[in-house]
Specification:
The protein is mainly alpha-helical.
């Protein structure tokens, strides 16, 4: 019962709190209507009887807000990971949720005359949100048989975080004041603090759970006795029979061992590219849609809302993807050891995510309004599938005691590339006159290189399996010689 509620509330937290900033396409029109950064425009927003289009200066500044928010969220992940490894989940989560509340409070108290506050507000919101995803990712260790399903559904909920801003967008154009919605959300977010102490572990979760492992509210009663005892120390009191470790258990690895693996670097390379392409698409959607659809603001708003609704469907699609991955993993386990079976299933998942991203870029190059529905759908499916596989890969392959650092470092390096989103947006707007053809052609070529990671995983499985067979054959031959 407790583990089921933990899974469900993790999805709700990622859906309603962690991934809100990635619903930028829906909150951007609201900020334009409210008149943020409109001082250099010929007309201002704050007129709900019509739909205002952002002027170039306003669009660039709002794009910069999103860029800073994404870079800050990804860049802070290393520090968040270190805090998680050192102080555990309760303290880390409390700190992150307070940050999210502060960010929304800054947003709710700002106005067009203090537009600069948006740079800080959305950055703080995303720092807290990305950190919460990190803390929820490790919970996959509670579900050894369904790790992939948890990881993909968790990431799907995060990608569906646009639900928050989509709802705000809909209510705003229905007449609800923006500030009222923000303050209501602040009050609602306090419920997640209850989840921290009832349904999440106080410290890191061991990759292989000891017998009788307990967490959440069951730790509250004995908190005074366990202040200096983390999950790794508690595991020392279990017997070897309880742990039943095999040579695939990542908790036996050191941090240096993690960095020596080639697949760590192929993942980082591919993740950086997919992350950048996906984030650039979200950041510039308000510029891309007029390029493909023309100046009909009603139609642009319609496509923006369609994109938001498709993003919301991630929470439905991602569990199906996870179940398929779990099925493949169980099937491969009949002939491969656990790590190799997981790698082979992941190679399939990463390839699917890559192909949808490539398909998105191809569709974006077709000058047809109806094809852009496919573009929006492919973007969401590709991002959800790929990021879900990344979550599972990081939680499964790396040791619990270093999970925060490895996860944070991966997100940090991938997020560092996002500093190029804003200058690339300026290039598109000012040099190419909002024409995305050249940029998307370049992205299409780059996206093909992301196939290097699933390709290496398959090569690693093939190479390791061959080496193990040769090793087994040699041992059998030696045994036969000894018998003679």
């Amino acid at each position: 019962m407790q583990t089921g509620l933990t899974w469900f509330t993790a999805l709700m937290e990622n859906l309603l709190c962690a991934g809100a900033v990635y619903g930028w396409a829906n909150i951007n029109p609201v900020l334009v209507e409210e008149g943020y950064f409109s001082h250099n425009c010929t007309t201002t927003g704050n007129n709900q009887s019509s739909i205002e289009a952002p002027c170039k200066d306003q669009a660039e500044k709002l794009n910069l807000v999103f860029t800073i928010a994404t870079v800050a969220g990804q860049g802070s992940s290393v520090l968040t990971g270190m805090i998680l490894d050192k102080l555990g989940g309760w303290i880390t989560r409390t700190f992150l949720l307070i940050l999210v509340g502060i960010g929304y409070l800054m947003l709710g108290t700002s106005d067009p005359s203090s537009s600069f506050v948006l740079y800080f507000a959305f950055a703080i919101i995303n720092i807290g949100g990305v950190g919460l995803v990190l803390t929820n990712s490790q919970i996959a260790n509670l579900y050894s048989k369904y790790r992939v399903s948890y990881s993909t559904s968790s990431q799907g909920a995060f990608n569906s975080g646009s639900t928050v801003f989509l709802l705000m967008n809909t209510l705003y154009y229905a007449g609800v004041q923006f500030k009222h919605m923000v303050f209501f959300y602040i009050a609602f977010s306090f419920s997640f603090h209850i989840r921290t102490f009832v349904l999440t572990p106080r410290y890191s979760i061991p990759h292989t759970l000891p017998r009788g492992y307990s967490y959440g509210y069951r730790e509250v009663a004995c908190a005074a006795k366990t202040t200096s005892t983390n999950a790794a120390e508690r595991a020392e009191f279990t017997t070897k029979d309880d742990l039943k470790r095999d040579h695939d258990d990542p908790d036996e690895k050191t941090f240096k061992d993690c960095l020596r693996e080639v697949y760590s670097w192929t993942l980082l390379f591919s993740f950086c590219l997919i992350q950048f392409i996906s984030t650039f698409f979200i950041a510039t959607l308000d510029i891309f849609l007029p390029f493909r659809l023309g100046t009909d603001e009603i139609q642009i708003l319609h496509y923006t809302r369609i994109f938001g609704m498709v993003q919301c469907c991630c929470i439905i699609f991602s569990p199906l993807n996870g179940l398929l991955m779990d099925y493949l993993r169980q099937r491969y386990l009949k002939t491969l050891r656990p790590q190799l079976a997981s790698f082979k299933a992941l190679a399939f998942g990463f390839t699917v995510g890559n192909m949808f991203t490539i398909g998105m870029l191809i569709c974006s190059l077709i000058p047809n309004a109806h094809v852009q529905y496919v573009t929006l759908v492919f973007q969401v499916i590709g991002r959800t599938t790929y990021f879900g596989c990344v979550n599972f890969f990081l939680s499964y392959v790396y040791p619990t005691k270093h999970f925060g650092k490895v996860f944070g470092l991966t997100i940090f390096v991938a997020g560092s590339s996002l500093v190029l989103v804003y200058p690339l947006t300026l290039l598109v707007v000012r040099v190419f006159d909002s024409d995305f053809t050249v940029i998307n052609l370049v992205f299409l070529g780059i996206a093909c290189f992301t196939l290097v990671h699933p390709g290496y995983l398959l090569y690693y499985v093939h190479k390791t399996t061959k080496e193990e067979k040769l090793s087994t054959h040699d041992r059998v031959s030696e045994a036969q010689l000894c018998m003679k």
